[in-house]
Design goal:
Distance between the termini: 36 Å
Oligomer: single chain
Number of strands: 8
Structural class: alpha+beta
CATH class: Mainly Beta
Strand content: 35-45%
Helix content: 25-40%
Largest sheet: 8 strands, antiparallel
Length: 187
């Protein structure tokens, strides 16, 4: 997708706005199951890359499958909220309106697993999304098999599916959220 068509796709995609009285936060997202998160993701819109620049906080929300249900879901949620959870978020740097780069922040290990960002069709529903591409020579094979996407679901709150590149289509593994500094400074 060219920068022009990327910009056009984002402009033509109606910006998501919360319903009256509905404010979406990362804490609210963490209380939802995979089906509810998938529905919210479908309502979201592609973010502006500049809104992600810097080191926004990240949070793993819910696993899909057995770890996303019942007692396992509650345990996984507690672990994801704890200061012991290793993933701290992603750092982003926009190159222009349509492309960027980033890296994952892993507590105690530093910055690992770089990615490039671009706008493209979602593996979930085919609509425009921000794609995080890990298929880079710096990453080990198993990281290169990850397909992440992001959409904005509330000003400064970004929801994404993490998928495994399977045939014939990527397979949903979990949902994660990114919260920009815009939200942290306002709240």
């Amino acid at each position: 997708m060219t920068a022009t068509t990327t910009t056009d796709a984002r402009k033509s995609s109606q910006r998501w706005a919360p319903s009256a009285g509905r404010t979406i936060t990362v804490d609210l997202l963490a209380r939802k199951g995979p089906a509810e998160l998938a529905a919210l993701y479908r309502e979201g819109t592609p973010p502006r890359l500049a809104d992600l620049d810097g080191a926004p906080q990240g949070r793993m929300l819910a696993w899909v499958g057995p770890l996303g249900e019942g007692r396992a879901r509650r345990v996984v949620g507690r672990v994801a909220r704890s200061s012991l959870f290793p993933w701290g978020g992603k750092s982003f740097e926009s190159v222009d309106d349509g492309r960027g780069k980033g890296i994952n922040r892993v507590r105690l290990l530093g910055n690992l697993f770089p990615f490039e960002t671009r706008f493209g069709p979602s593996a979930v529903d085919g609509r425009p999304s921000l794609v995080l591409d890990y298929d880079l020579p710096a990453n080990p094979w198993f990281i290169r098999q990850i397909h992440d996407e992001l959409r904005e679901v509330e000003r400064g709150v970004f929801l994404g599916p993490a998928m495994w590149k399977a045939e014939p289509a990527p397979r949903l593994v979990l949902f994660f959220a990114i919260q920009s500094a815009v939200v942290r400074s306002a709240g």
